[in-house]
Design brief:
The protein is α/β, with parallel strands linked by helices. The protein contains eight helices and seven strands. Helix 2 runs parallel beside helix 3. It is globular and about 55 Å long.
């Protein structure tokens, strides 16, 4: 007997009609994920700190046929996170997916870095995700929704071999741990929690590495020496994994840190 999924394998990637709350929606990963979900019939609640950039992404998604609600806010407090969830519920009646694409980095050697700078990175990359998990997870459990949560990690959560990244590496290691513990806590509710961990990929934050600047070229060459596929990542490289983790295809995948890194972690 052939199962329905094997008769129609693409149905396992059907996200049409699902509502995704995406923070950091104006960043490279947040925007790409939003547009991909929009093109596949998803509904979007987009949140970001830059109002103009947020509206630009929203208009791009609407041009692809998506219904979109926006929240001009970052997940800096539990109240702001609750506002994001409320906007989604008022606009669409439910939220099915949570994509935590917001984040921040500030490099510096530990002996020179003020504590406040380290804490800023930890707050942006860990505290915000915890607030979002607390609010959206409680909503999913109360309403018996088998939600899907996707976090943004990094190969730096596993590998510390880069100078000046004590804050960033620590925050991404915490992201990996949060992914695993939420998966174990929420598994009994049918909720999945996973993370994507890329190597360097093209974004506004890394644009200097893709130019002709001497420092950028040196840094790029050093990064490429660790990547078997011989190139740095493009944001489109991350979208396929994001769609898998947000679609029914990944219903039996939880607590995983999925490396999209050109082979960086293989060596």
């Amino acid at each position: 007997m052939i199962s329905e999924q094997l008769r129609d394998p693409l149905s396992m990637f059907d996200v049409s009609g699902k509502t995704a709350l995406i923070t950091g929606a104006t960043g490279a990963f947040g925007r790409a994920t939003a547009l991909a979900l929009a093109a596949l019939g998803g509904r979007l609640v987009l949140a970001a700190g830059s109002r103009d950039a947020l509206e630009d992404v929203a208009e791009e998604a609407r041009a692809l046929g998506a219904e979109v609600a926006t929240v001009h806010a970052r997940p800096d407090s539990f109240e702001e996170v609750e506002q994001m969830l409320t906007v989604g519920l008022e606009a669409f009646g439910r939220v099915d997916q949570l994509v935590v694409a917001s984040g921040y980095n500030k490099a510096g050697f530990i002996q020179d870095m003020p504590y406040e700078q380290w804490q800023e990175v930890m707050d942006a990359n860990v505290r915000g995700a915890w607030f979002l998990a607390k609010a959206v997870g409680a909503y999913w459990i109360e309403n018996e929704i088998k939600g899907k949560m996707l976090l943004m990690s990094s190969v730096r959560g596993r590998h510390g071999n880069v100078s000046g990244y004590t804050a960033y590496c620590t925050s991404k290691g915490a992201t990996d741990a949060l992914t695993r513990v939420l998966a174990t806590e929420w598994g009994k509710y049918g909720i999945t929690v996973n993370a994507i961990a890329p190597t360097v990929f093209r974004s506004n934050l890394t644009a200097w590495m893709f130019g002709d600047d001497e420092l950028g070229q040196a840094t790029k060459a050093r990064s490429l020496s660790r990547i078997p596929l011989g190139r740095l990542g493009e944001v489109e490289d991350l979208v396929g994994m994001a769609l898998y983790l947000l679609a029914p295809a990944s219903n039996f995948c939880t607590g995983q840190v999925m490396y999209v890194d050109g082979g960086f972690t293989a060596g």
